[in-house]
Design a protein that fits this description.
The complex is a heterodimer of chains A (158) and B (164). Helices cover 22% and strands 29% of the residues of chain A. Chain A is α/β, with parallel strands linked by helices and 158 residues long. Classes of the chains: A alpha/beta (158), B alpha/beta (164).
C-alpha cells in the first residue's frame, strides 16, 4: 500500500483525527490528533491490508516553538510497507495517548520520551522515568532545560 | 624472588622491616572490585584476559566490596551511578585505593559540556589515587596505572599510621 492510499483510507475512516500530512517526503508522514492516536494505531495494527505489526521507533521531539511531538515509525512485516506518524502537543498540555497496548515496544519508548521531554502518555500502564534518577529535576532534552547546579549534593557543571 | 630459588637447608630467619614486609604483601595482592561502567570496562576485561594477564600483579577480581583493596572506576560515572559508587566505596575496608580509568571518570571526558547526567570526574565523590588517561586507555596503560599504585603502596607505612 502506498503512503497516499494509507492516508486516504485513514482520512475516510477517522476524519479529523488525521491532521496534516507530507506524502512526497523521503519518509512520508501523516499527522495525528494527540487524543486519538490510540484508535488510529489500533486500526493500522489490526486491519487486514495495513497490518503494521512492527513499531520500529518511537521518538520524542522538541520543535522549539512551544510544541512537543512524538514520531512513530511503523513497518509491516507481511505487507512490506512503512509509514511515519506524527502527533503534536504543547509544552503547557503535554498529553498524548499511549499506544503501548498496541505495540509492547512502545512501553519503554514512551517512558523514555516521558523522561527526556516530559510528554505524558495517557493510558500508559507504568509511566515512570527510565534513564534519569527518579528525583532528577526536569526533562533534560527539552530546549528550555537548564542543567541544575547541584544534584544530590554533587556539583553537575564542569 | 631470588632467595626462593635456593632450598633452605636448615630453618632460617629472614630479616626485613615490618613496613616493607606488610607493604610487599599488600601491593602483591591488590584485590580488585569487579565491576565496569562503560567502554573502558572492555579494556579492563582485556587487561584481565590472557594477553595482558593482570593477575600476574596479584589483582584478583572479587564480587563484593568487603573483600576488595582497589576499585577501578572504568567508565562514565552518571549521576545515578555516582551515589552507588560512593556507597560501594564506603563498604570497602581500609586501606582502600581507587584507580580512575579513562577520560570520563577523570574529568567527564566528551560529556564535559552537555552531559547533564554525567558526573564531571569521579573525584567529586570519592578520593582517587591514580588517574589513567585515555579514551579508552589501552590495557598497558591500566597496567601502568596499577604499577604506579603499587609504588604508592610501597611507600606507605602502616606501622606509623600514615595511611589516609
Amino acid at each position: 500500500m502506498t503512503p497516499q492510499e494509507i492516508h486516504d483510507n485513514l482520512k475516510a475512516k477517522f476524519g479529523t483525527a488525521v491532521a496534516d500530512a507530507k506524502l512526497d517526503a523521503l519518509q512520508p508522514w501523516i499527522g495525528l490528533a494527540p487524543d486519538r492516536t490510540l484508535e488510529v494505531c489500533r486500526f493500522l495494527h489490526d486491519e487486514a491490508g495495513f497490518e503494521f505489526d512492527y513499531l520500529s521507533c518511537l521518538s520524542g521531539v522538541d520543535y522549539n516553538d512551544g510544541k512537543l511531538g512524538v514520531v512513530y515509525h511503523l513497518f509491516s512485516m507481511n505487507q512490506k510497507h512503512k509509514i511515519v506518524l506524527k502527533a503534536l502537543c504543547t509544552r503547557e498540555q503535554p498529553h498524548i495517548q499511549s499506544v503501548s497496548q498496541v505495540w509492547g515496544t512502545a512501553n519503554w519508548h514512551e517512558r523514555e520520551a516521558f523522561d527526556m521531554f516530559g510528554i505524558v502518555f495517557d493510558g500508559h500502564p507504568d509511566l515512570r522515568r527510565i534513564l534519569c534518577g527518579d528525583d532528577y529535576p526536569g526533562h533534560p532534552l527539552r530546549k528550555d532545560f537548564k542543567v541544575p547546579e547541584f544534584y544530590n549534593g554533587m556539583k553537575v557543571p564542569y | 624472588m631470588g632467595i626462593l630459588n635456593y632450598k633452605f637447608e636448615k630453618s632460617n630467619i629472614v630479616i626485613a622491616s615490618l613496613d616493607g614486609l606488610l607493604n610487599w604483601a599488600r601491593l602483591s595482592s591488590l584485590y580488585q572490585m569487579q565491576f565496569g561502567l562503560a567502554c573502558c570496562a572492555i579494556e579492563m576485561m582485556a587487561a584481565s584476559a590472557s594477553n595482558f594477564d593482570i593477575m600476574r600483579f596479584g589483582v584478583i577480581p572479587r564480587a563484593t566490596p568487603r573483600q576488595c583493596d582497589v576499585m577501578i572506576v572504568s567508565g562514565t560515572v552518571t549521576l545515578k551511578m555516582a551515589t552507588r559508587i560512593k556507597r560501594l566505596f564506603d563498604q570497602m575496608p581500609e586501606p582502600r585505593y581507587v584507580i580512575s580509568m579513562g577520560s570520563c571518570s577523570n574529568c567527564g571526558g566528551p560529556y564535559w559540556e552537555h552531559g547533564y547526567h554525567v558526573l564531571k570526574g569521579v573525584d567529586r565523590v570519592i578520593p582517587v589515587d591514580v588517574y589513567v588517561p585515555g579514551c579508552p586507555p589501552r590495557p598497558e596503560a591500566l597496567l601502568e596505572g596499577l604499577i604506579k599504585l603499587q609504588e604508592k603502596v610501597r611507600q606507605e607505612s602502616l606501622a606509623k599510621k600514615t595511611v589516609r
